[in-house]
Amino acid sequence: MPEQQASGHQQTPEHTVGDFLLRRREQIAQRWADAALFRTVFTVSRDEAAEAGRAVVEALAATAAAGRVEDPGASAFAVVREQLARTAAARTRAGAGTTQISAEVDALRPPVAELLLADLGDVPADYSRDCVTALTVLMGTLRLVVLETALSAGQDLIDRQRLQLLEATTPVIKLWEGIVAVPLIGTLDSARSQVVMETLLEAVVDQHARFAILDITGVPTVDSLVAQHLMKTVAAARLMGAECIVSGIRPAIAQTIVHLGIDLSSVLTRSGLADALAYALRQQDADLDLSAARGASTR
Amino acid sequence: MSGAFPAPYGGHVPVLKLGDVLLVTLQGDLHDSTAEQLQQDISQAVADHAVSGVVLDISGVEIVDSFLGRVLAEIAAKAGLLAARTVLAGMRPAVAITLVELGLTLPGLRTALNTEDAMRLLGVEVPRSIPGAAPGSPRPGRTRQESP
Amino acid sequence: MQTAGGVSACLPIHSDMDLVWVRQHVRQAAAQLGFGLVEQTKLVTAASELARNTLVHGGGGQMECAPVQGRSPGLRLTFSDEGPGIADLDQALSDGFTSGGGLGLGLGGARRLVHEFAIDSRPGAGTSVMVTVWKSGPPRPREER
User: Fold this and answer.
1) Residue C111 resides in a domain
2) Which residue is closest to C70 within chain A, CA to CA?
3) Is this prediction's pTM over 0.90?
């Protein structure tokens, strides 16, 4: 249908490809529905596969029309990124490595190129070649996008697993009714400190713990960053109505903290976990005494 | 007295009076003017009903920004002027973490894990059978006698 | 299929009610991108602060919200107004919520809640604040000093 223009280049190859993709969207989607990439993902319904294919063709068409065939960051891809990510994830789960996924995306090109050539008809050979090149570049960009999403999903998985590991190694122990403790062991980095804070505060809610003990006996060094995180945890617990006690501050650490100029005066500290527990128990008793006394005095 | 403070833009903020303590339950996403209206309504109620304590239950609040934080602090300040103590109850962990990061420490506001603890802090005896009440102790629980 | 469209938006900030819409949209967008609860809370709170600044100090403006892609998915919010602008940016950024003096804009606080923060403001030329939060944490986790 694009009766070709004289070599006046009224339309760039990219635009031609864009128009062609839109016009042949349905046919392309149908052919792709049988291609490995879509067929193996949308196993239940071929219609679903075709619909997914349609969405991708539209994204490709928009990218071509915008003249961005070589840009994986083109905004048109944003719309199908989520879908492509799920497709890549499904293929990965089925055991396909990135090389195979790459090849499967590549395999989407030939049927489209075939249709394009048929569509172009009798245009000058040069122009025809340019259009096919534009299509090839565009499909290469699609492959990049798919691989990018696969990598990102992999990164997501690693992050999630790392978080799960951090949470598993940050046990919060219920020492008594209303008293929880986190014995910290090893070095504390930013990520770990964040997990400790969140895990502890969640435990405070779950256990109705008025007292939370942060035991740093097993922490070799305390730098200003760790101290900051401890302070934040104490402050957050206080806002929630719980009291934090930091135990296990050895003389060496105390010295470091003083040298760092950190003011722990607002933080309750005890030298050992047992001391901290004793303190918390005494406080609980005192609270009960107080409310009993109040109850008596209002009679 | 119990019922609600009507809020601008519709809706209401539930209020309950238990003994001489006012229990105010904030929920959801508070409109700025709702927060401000609440401040006035609480001050009025404290003055009108010989209230000695105010519990602000924020267990249903997902976001506390600097505006709401200031309003909460002001509620406590005004109640203090009228000789009533204020306790903020039930702050969610995510909110607490965010407030600390923001640098808002809400000094002068007592805090409690939940409304039962808050009540106890204010001298109101809470029957032990309430779920979420402080863990059992060997002492027998006493139910509050209504003051005449 | 989720479209980026559910996340992208341009919301007006001209009234108190608009602040509620801003918070709701940011919350929904962050949830859609799979952010954790603490991250969501920080972002919505930052958005609330910045939107209120736009309304109260900037005379009204808008928030643009869009997904971005880095090493992980992210969300970018841009608050802009044509207000009087900020004369002393350094001071405004170092301001916490100091009682009394200072602009009390709380920009410093909001900055701590996000991973990337950029502000462009000049007296008479309006203000634009752009913040970004990434799903997998700040771009290159670096120990703060």
Assistant:
1) yes
2) A152
3) no
